[in-house]
Amino acid sequence: TIFDPALYYGAPEMDLAMTELFGGFAQAFYTAYETHFPISNHYKQHKELYQLYPLLVHANIFGVHSGYLAAVSRIVKRYL
Fold first, then answer.
1. Are 51 and 17 spatial neighbours (Cβ–Cβ below 8 Å)?
2. What is the spatial distance between Cα 72 and Cα 76, in angstroms, rounded to a whole number?
3. CB atoms within 10 A of CB 80
4. Which pLDDT value is given to residue 1?
5. Cα(36)–Cα(33) distance, rounded to whole angstroms?
6. Which of 33, 34, 49, 59 could cross-link with 68 by S-S, CB 3.0 to 4.6 Å?
7. Using CA atoms, how far apart are residues 47 and 50, in angstroms rounded to an integer?
8. Model confidence band, residue 8 (pLDDT cutoffs 50, 70, 90)
9. pLDDT for 9-66, tens place per residue?
10. Helix (H), strand (E) at residue 67
11. Cα–Cα distance for residue pair 28/43, rounded to 1 Å
């Protein structure tokens, strides 16, 4: 039996936000993505919230001086 500990079930736009967090992909990817998973009108508003957890993980791994913590702080301030 193979078990994937990184299995995730949630908003498809979480994956989309992750692609944009580190530079993004070619426009062809996003066009194809939207044909299979239509992007909600609220995606741009929620994108940073989707990116918050991966940023926290990177801040933990690479340290508070890595720049990731500044991004986390900016997002938290925006939504609080």
1. yes
2. 6
3. 5
4. 63
5. 5
6. 59
7. 5
8. confident
9. 788 899 899 999 989 999 999 999 999 989 999 999 999 999 999 999 999 999 878 8
10. none
11. 18
Q: 5 falls in which pLDDT band (50, 70, 90)?
A: confident
In a 10 Å sphere around its CB, with 0-12 CB exposed, 13-18 middle and 19+ buried, how is residue 16 labelled?
buried
DSSP string, 14-47: HHHHHHHHTT---HHHHHHHHHHSPPPTTHHHHH
CB 53 within 8 A of CB 11: no
Tell me how far apart the alpha carbons of residues 66 and 69 are, in angstroms, rounded to a whole number: 7
Torsion (CA) 55, 56, 57, 59 in degrees, nearest 10:
90
Neighbours of 21 (CB within 10 A): 16
Q: Which long-range contacts (CB under 8 A, 24 or more apart) does 37-45 make?
A: 37/12, 37/13, 39/13, 40/13, 43/13, 43/16, 43/17
Please give the structure tokens belonging to residue 8: 């995730």
